[in-house]
Each structure stands twice: as structure tokens, then as C-alpha cells.
Amino acid sequence: MIIGIDGNEANVKNKVGVGYYAFNLLKALKKEDRKNEYWIYLKNKPLEDMPIESPSWKYIVMGPKKMWTRFALPLKLYTQIKKPNIFISPSHYTPFFCPVPKIVSIMDLGYLDTPEQFTKKDFYQLKNWTEGSLKTSQHVITISEFCKKDIVKRYKISPDKISILYPIVDNPPISIAKPKYKDYFLYIGTLKPSKNIPFLINAFKTYLDKNLKNRSKKLIIAGKKGWLYEDIFALVKKLHISKNIIFTGYIDEKTKWSLLKYTSALIIPSLYEGFGIPVVEAMKTNTPVISSNRGSLLEINKDYGQIVDPEDENELIMAMEKVSKVSKKIPQKYTQKEIIKQFQGIIKHVSR
Is the alpha carbon torsion for 178, 180, 186, 190 positive or negative? Predict the structure, then answer.
């Protein structure tokens, strides 16, 4: 079977969120799937870290880049003499017209609750293009039970049309160097309102005031700037804890695993989360996790770490105070082989 995939989300330098999801899926398919042939459609030449071409792995690069998903990609699919048997978009947007069955991937629908965080143009596109992709796709892949229920509720899609495929999370390197920081809590994620970072900073300030012996404790906030992040930096200045808060900006893979391995705990206090990849990454280094009970985080972290109300500062402070190392096995559902096996089952089901 020939499987076409929109590879653009994976073909970026600094990968986060859906880019990370798409990239790891492509890498795993190239490594594990010996049954199918893959055609990866791109608007730019593949970067050096993309899987190497082979007889069963082909890149198709074409333009124009503007409105690529709506026009360039459908035109290519229709005019190809030999076509893929099925087309997969590891993002919310599928080709506007498609001559073969297509599958859309939905990471989360949090934007529907926070339209004020987007420009009118971006929100219109997210809302309506996602709905169009959902209505015209033969199947939907999403990344958690929470997201599946949300899609059914908001877009009235049949549950039978939706499959859950957890994101593939890389294993840590065998050798992980110690970071330059000592005695710290860690947050990993984009700086944007849904991540609830001001709540985390306020709780951390109270934690420092209550635990005078830990005044040297640091909070490392690792992630690129998203949008509406100015109040985060303003709050740190207002609370006079600039010496205790470290903003790293975007971090590479080597730095990420180093920070995860040696932190006191990973803290993810999000108000909404479609999955929470850093939680599984922490599991793979036996790192304690404190997460909120919102979105998918309760589903992902309930059998592993501590769960807190992301609006109750005292709960988070108490969780910080009772952090201890863990040694639990990673659930089978997060292994690469299991996820690729499920992926192959989805493709087989849709192509019938």
C-alpha cells in the first residue's frame, strides 16, 4: 500500500507540539513499517534530520507555498498518474479536495475556549478549516481519550470514526550529562496563556517564602515564547524573584533530557492540554511529575505522578513539598512498537 503524508509539520527546525508529534511518527514509520510505501509531501526540501529517502520512502516537494494545503497539494494529488492509496495529515488541515481516502489528526480543541488569544483571521482558519477537515475525512486520529470526547462533543463526529494514537516519545540517551543548574523545579512548554505559568510562578514564590531553607531553589521555565506572554516576565519582576526564575527559551533535545533527568520535579500546571508529551518524557527518566487535573493530564499522569487543581495554589505548594523520586515502568501504550502497530491497524481499517 502507498501512504501519502503531509510532512510539513515535521520538516521544521525547532519542533514543538504537533511538529514533535509528526516528526517522531515519521521516524518510527521509517524504522518499523516494512509493509507499506510512503510518499511524504513537502513545500520545502527535507531538512537533514528527516528520514533518509529509500525505495519505500519518497519525498515529493512542490509549490506554490502560499495556500499549499488548499491548492498546491490537492492539485498534485489529482494530477499524479500514480496516486497514494490513502492520505494522512498529522495536523488539523487536510487537502481541500482529495482523490483518495484521507485521515486528519487532531491534537486538541483548546482554541475554541480561548478565541481572544488569536487574531480573528487565525481563529477563523483554525475553527473552520478544522471543521472542514473533520467533516470530509474518512477517519480521525487524536492523541488522548479526552481529545476524542472533546471532538465528539464539539463537532458531533461519530466516536466510531475516531481512533486514539498516543504520540511517540523518544527514549532518553543512554548517557545524560548533568546540567549547570542545581536544585530546581522544571516547566517545559510554550509560553502562552493556556499553560498557566503565572499561577506556577505565584505558587513557587509562596513555596520559597514558606521554606526558608530552600531559598536557593530555582524554577526553570524552558520553552519558546508563544503569545500573550508579557505578563509572565512582568510578574517575575513584581515578585522580586528574578534570581530564582530561569527562562531558557527554546531548548534542544540534549538540554531537555539533561534538565528532565536531574530536576526535583517536572511541573505542568496547564488549564488545557491535548496530551502532555513532557509528562511521558519525565516518566522515561523516572522523574517526579506534578500536573494539573485538566485536559488530558489526569488521563496521562493519574497512575504516575501528583495531580493538582490548577487554580488552587496551596495544592501545588503541598505537591512541591512532598516530591520524591519514583521508579515505575512506562505503560505499554507509550512504546513505539505498540503505537506503530495501532497505526497500521487504523490504515488497514480505513482502506477497506
Answer: negative
